Structure formats: structure tokens, C-alpha cells
């Protein structure tokens, strides 16, 4: 049984979908959970549900694209719980523009949300994690970061590829005090497992990556897609962000 008692986890984009389920799973494992989202009502609702289950929790409204907002969020988490051991960079999203349609604003928004956001959050938790050691960061990328998105726009594809690169570079620089890994959701009814990814699949993958079971795993990419990439059609290359809105 995985036991995270006494540890604190920040989960961004935790108001729904992958983030909400991940927050719940980490709370069930004993962690204190900081629920982070721009959606105040939904985010507070997730935190309230966790509290009813006996989880020590805190909701913080935060725009991950804004460095000052992120620093204030981490400060609030550290003030409440003393230290942060786990960060799950889940907040993300995409428009549906093609390369021909996307404009500069939409391009920059995707990069800010899906790539700069995780960078901001990781930088903010880094000093504390380096001080106490055994920090763990999980970046939620996408199978679009292994190939290309169909439903999203070019900025989503580029930023999710970039997040994998950021994961590997950060892992190299921050070890052994902080382990940094990425998780790529996906799935396909044509794949070996015959279905799309569910929030529980992502949450269980995150739980593994932040547990002692993965203590020698660093800078790796965990593909949680049921083998869907093994025999994809164009429509199956990126089906993981149906659970994610444009949370920042």
C-alpha cells in the first residue's frame, strides 16, 4: 500500500477531470492536498469533498501562467502545511485551430498554459524541495507530445513536446533531491486495451510516479494510453484532453 502520510501535494488544474481524480487519489494515500485552479467554485468543491473524506486540504485560486500568482500559491501551501513534497503539473488545454487558422494570440496562449505554467510552478516549489530533498514533480504531457494532436491546435502539440523536453532537462539538473517525470495520457478503441484513457488511469500513474515504488525512476515518460499508439488511426493520436478545459 502506498502511504504518503505527512507529505503535501500540489495539483494544478484540479477542479475536474484528471486533476480532480489525481487530487482524490493522492488524498486517499494520505497526502495533504492543495487543489489549484482558476475555476473557484469547482476547485473549492473538490477541496470540500476531500475534506469530507478526512483529507487535509486547501484550495488556492491560481493562474499558472502568472509567475506572481504561482509564487503566492506555493507560499500559501507552505504556510499551511510547512513544506511541499509533490507537484503535479496538470493544468492545460487547447483550442481546435489548424495551422492555417491559428493566430499569434492562440499560439502564445497554448505555450503559456501548457509549457510556461509547469515551468512557473516547478521553479516556485524548487527551493523548498531542494532544501528538504525527496521532491517529486510529475508533468502531465500528452500522447500529442509523442506524435501530433488531431483535436487540438499546433500550439498544443508543440507545448506538449516541449513539456517532455523540460521534464528531462529538469530531471538532469535537479536530481537527486527532486525527481521529475512526465505522464502522457492517450488511448484508442483500436488499441490493445480497446478504450480511451480515464481519469483513474492518470491518477494511478501519478501515484506510482510519486511513490517509493518509483524511487529510481527519473526523467522518464510514462505513456498511459493502453497501447493505443501501437496501431493508431489519425483520430486516435490524441484523445486525452477531453477531461481538461482551459485551466490555467
From TrEMBL:
Q: Does the keyword Oxidoreductase apply?
A: yes
Q: Which domain of life is it from?
A: Archaea
The UniProt keyword set, sorted, is: Oxidoreductase
The protein's GO terms of the molecular function aspect are: oxidoreductase activity
Is Cytoplasm one of the keywords? Answer: no
Q: Which InterPro entries match?
A: NAD(P)-bd_dom_sf, SDR_fam
Pfam families for the chain: adh_short, adh_short_C2
Residue ranges crossing the lipid bilayer per the database entry: none
PANTHER family named among the record's database cross-references? DEHYDROGENASES, SHORT CHAIN, ESTRADIOL 17-BETA-DEHYDROGENASE 8-RELATED
- What family name appears in the similarity comment? Belongs to the short-chain dehydrogenases/reductases (SDR) family.
User: What is the name of the protein in this document?
Assistant: 3-oxoacyl-[acyl-carrier-protein] reductase
Amino acid at each position: 500500500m502506498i502511504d504518503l502520510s505527512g507529505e503535501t501535494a500540489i495539483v494544478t488544474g484540479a477542479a475536474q477531470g484528471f486533476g480532480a481524480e489525481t487530487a482524490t487519489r493522492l488524498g486517499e494515500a494520505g497526502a495533504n492536498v492543495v487543489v489549484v485552479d482558476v475555476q473557484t467554485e469547482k476547485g473549492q468543491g473538490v477541496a470540500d469533498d476531500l475534506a469530507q473524506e478526512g483529507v487535509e486540504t486547501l484550495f488556492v485560486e491560481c493562474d499558472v501562467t502568472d509567475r506572481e500568482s504561482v509564487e503566492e500559491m506555493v507560499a500559501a501551501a507552505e504556510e499551511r502545511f510547512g513544506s511541499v513534497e509533490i507537484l503535479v503539473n496538470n493544468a492545460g488545454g487547447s483550442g481546435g485551430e489548424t495551422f492555417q487558422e491559428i493566430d499569434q494570440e492562440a499560439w502564445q496562449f497554448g505555450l503559456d498554459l501548457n509549457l510556461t505554467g509547469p515551468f512557473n510552478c516547478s521553479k516556485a516549489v524548487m527551493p523548498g524541495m531542494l532544501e528538504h530533498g525527496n521532491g517529486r514533480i510529475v508533468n502531465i504531457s500528452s500522447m500529442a507530445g509523442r506524435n501530433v494532436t488531431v483535436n487540438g491546435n499546433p500550439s498544443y502539440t508543440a507545448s506538449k513536446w516541449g513539456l517532455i523536453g523540460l521534464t528531462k532537462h529538469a530531471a538532469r539538473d535537479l536530481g537527486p533531491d527532486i525527481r521529475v517525470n512526465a505522464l502522457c495520457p492517450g488511448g484508442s478503441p483500436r488499441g490493445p486495451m480497446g478504450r480511451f484513457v480515464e481519469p483513474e488511469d492518470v491518477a494511478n500513474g501519478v501515484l506510482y510516479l510519486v511513490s517509493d515504488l518509483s524511487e529510481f525512476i527519473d526523467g522518464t515518460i510514462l505513456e498511459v494510453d493502453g497501447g493505443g499508439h501501437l496501431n493508431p488511426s489519425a483520430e486516435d493520436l490524441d484523445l486525452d484532453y477531453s477531461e481538461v478545459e482551459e485551466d490555467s
